[in-house]
Design goal:
two-stranded antiparallel ribbon; two-stranded parallel sheet; elongated
């Protein structure tokens, strides 16, 4: 719409300047409608270039945050699923750990037996101490990590709520409130809440014998995970300066028509009004395209494929999931197929299409055949 309005205003102003120009003065070369281009470069091009530079830097910061997040997530899983401490004087390390019947009764079957008629009750374990199910521990962590990535992907793919009409109109304010409320609910409850559960699984690993120095390294990766999430959240919610974007928008739309006399003079010199109108329309189109580039880069996150945006669905719901599945198959090669559950205590599985947009059926068929 802005492109059409800008081109129409520029062409209309060019035609008006061409037909309203003094013919006598033009024929005697006493009239020159050419304007200096310094105003065009100072008022429009420079602010747009600065805005594009800032928006591109935000996109690069978002990519670095995403890379840090995925790296920390992968290392947390590998540490909790495969690290052993047998060489640290902890008896046999991970392989010889058994559940503690005093502090971990939820994982030990206990039977209450009443003795005699004097009302004395005594807890007696009917089973010997059982080894810790490390596959179950790793799968619980895997569920938390996958749900965390899915929630973060849903949050980052939400439409932005910081555009001008979200502050200037009633309808925009209502839309912004809905988007902000939905985003905060996803991030605070579904995303940030998972960090606590991951931390608790690290505490369980410490209780079972993991040395403090190795647990500290896992805590550091948890911090990287949280910091990366917060960085991406801030990039999502806050934008480049509104005044600079407003300045660029206004002059992108209104400045080309002000140069109508220059386009009219070009038409007179070339004896072709069509050529002058084309140059005016191209100038308006170029400035509008620059501003559209700024708008597209304002929110670097996108759901699905875009030319410049970050495909968070592909990165967080597909590629991150595939990396974790490969790690699981390497640590537990004999384990059954992983089933993603809604919660670690629920048996209900969660179905989600995680096929990559780069998926090639013919390639997959060849790989399976080989």
């Amino acid at each position: 719409m802005e492109t059409f309005v800008g081109c129409a205003l520029t062409i209309g102003a060019t035609l008006l300047a061409y037909y309203m120009s003094p013919k006598v003065a033009v024929s005697e070369e006493q009239w020159d409608g050419t304007l200096p281009t310094i105003l065009l470069s100072f008022a429009t091009v420079t602010p747009l270039i600065q805005s594009i530079s800032m928006a591109f830097n935000r996109r690069e910061a978002a990519l670095r945050g995403l890379a840090s997040y995925r790296s920390a997530m992968y290392h947390i899983y590998m540490a909790q699923a495969s690290w052993d401490w047998g060489e640290c004087g902890k008896k046999g390390g991970r392989r010889s750990c058994v559940e503690n019947t005093d502090d971990l009764k939820s994982v030990q079957e206990v039977e209450e037996v009443k003795e005699g008629g004097d009302g004395i009750e005594e807890d007696t374990t009917t089973l010997p101490p059982k080894p810790i199910d490390w596959l179950n521990h790793a799968d619980n962590l895997l569920c938390q990590l996958i749900h965390l990535s899915d929630s973060l992907s849903h949050y980052l793919a939400l439409p932005t709520a910081s555009r001008t009409h979200h502050r200037a109109t009633k309808l925009g304010e209502r839309e912004a409130k809905t988007l902000v409320f939905t985003g905060r609910k996803i991030f605070a409850l579904n995303a940030a809440g998972r960090i606590f559960m991951i931390s608790q699984l690290t505490e369980a690993l410490k209780y079972r014998g993991l040395p403090g120095n190795e647990a500290s390294r896992i805590r550091q990766w948890e911090q990287y995970l949280s910091v990366s999430m917060e960085n991406m959240r801030l990039i999502k919610e806050y934008r480049t300066p509104q005044s600079l974007r407003l300045f660029g928008r206004v002059f992108t739309l209104l400045l080309p028509p002000l140069y109508a006399t220059s386009f009219a003079q070009l038409s007179i010199d070339t004896e072709s009004i069509v050529f002058g109108c084309i140059i005016g329309a191209v100038t308006s189109l170029a400035l509008t395209s620059l501003f559209e580039a700024v708008r597209q880069l304002e929110d670097p996150f996108a759901r699905g494929f875009t030319f410049d945006g970050i495909d968070v669905t592909e990165e967080l719901q597909v590629l991150a999931y595939e990396e974790l599945m490969v790690a699981r198959s390497m640590v537990f090669p004999d384990a059954e197929e992983f089933v993603l559950k809604e919660d670690t205590k629920m048996k209900k599985a969660v179905g989600l299409d995680r096929k990559s947009r780069h998926y090639c059926e013919d390639c997959a068929r060849i790989i399976n055949a080989s």
